[in-house]
Specification:
- The termini are far apart.
- This protein has a single domain, classed as Arc Repressor Mutant, subunit A (Orthogonal Bundle).
- The protein has helices spanning 20-26, 30-41, 58-71, 89-95, 99-106, 122-133, and strands at residues 47-48, 74-79, 82-87, 112-113, 119-120.
- The chain has 139 residues and is α+β, with helices and mostly antiparallel strands.
- A three-stranded antiparallel beta sheet has the order 1-3-2. It has a two-stranded antiparallel ribbon with strand order 4-5.
- Strand 2 and strand 3 form a beta hairpin.
- Helix 1 (20-26) runs antiparallel to helix 3 and helix 2 (30-41) crosses helix 5.
- The longest helix has 14 residues, at 58-71.
- The chain is built from six helices and five strands; from the N terminus they run ααβαββααββα.
C-alpha cells in the first residue's frame, strides 16, 4: 500500500497586501483580540489552535483564526493535524509601525489561558502577569 502525503496550504496576504481596513475589521471582535493578546504573551513559541479552546468552540476558533489570517494579522502553518499560529509582528510593524503594540496593550483586560489551562480575567490576569514579569532571585 502506498501513502501520499498531502500538504495543506493556507493563503496569507503578502506584507504589502496587508490593508489597514482589513486589519481593523479583523480586530473588531473581542475573541480575536483575546487571541492576539494570548499570542503576544507567547510570541517566543508558535501556538496550536487547541491552546485557544478556552476562548470558544473549535468551529468558532477556526472562523476567528481564518479572519485574522486573511487580514494578515497572524500566520497559520499547517503541520499534520495541527495548525501552528504566530503573530505577523514584523510584517505589521513594517506596514503600521507601533499599531500592534497599541492593540496588544488593549488586550490586558481580556481573559487568557494560563500554562495550566486555567482561564483568568480581571485582577487574576493582572496578578498572573505581575508574577510572570517579577524578577526571580536565587536563595
Amino acid at each position: 500500500m502506498r501513502y501520499v502525503m498531502v500538504m495543506t496550504y493556507l493563503p496569507h496576504p503578502d506584507t504589502e497586501q496587508i490593508a489597514f481596513a482589513n486589519v481593523l475589521t479583523a480586530l473588531g471582535d473581542e475573541t480575536r483580540l483575546a487571541i492576539i493578546g494570548h499570542l503576544a504573551r507567547n510570541e517566543e513559541n508558535a501556538m496550536t489552535c487547541g491552546q485557544f479552546l478556552d476562548l470558544g468552540s473549535k468551529t468558532s476558533l477556526s472562523y476567528h483564526l481564518a479572519k485574522l489570517r486573511e487580514a494578515g494579522v497572524v500566520h497559520v502553518r499547517p503541520e499534520g493535524t495541527k495548525r501552528f499560529v504566530t503573530l505577523r509582528r514584523a510584517d505589521l510593524d513594517s506596514r503600521f509601525l507601533g499599531f500592534l503594540d497599541s492593540i496588544v496593550a488593549t488586550t490586558r483586560h481580556l481573559p487568557f489561558a494560563c500554562r495550566r489551562g486555567d482561564v483568568l480575567s480581571g485582577q487574576q490576569a493582572a496578578e498572573a502577569l505581575a508574577r510572570e514579569s517579577a524578577p526571580q532571585f536565587l536563595t
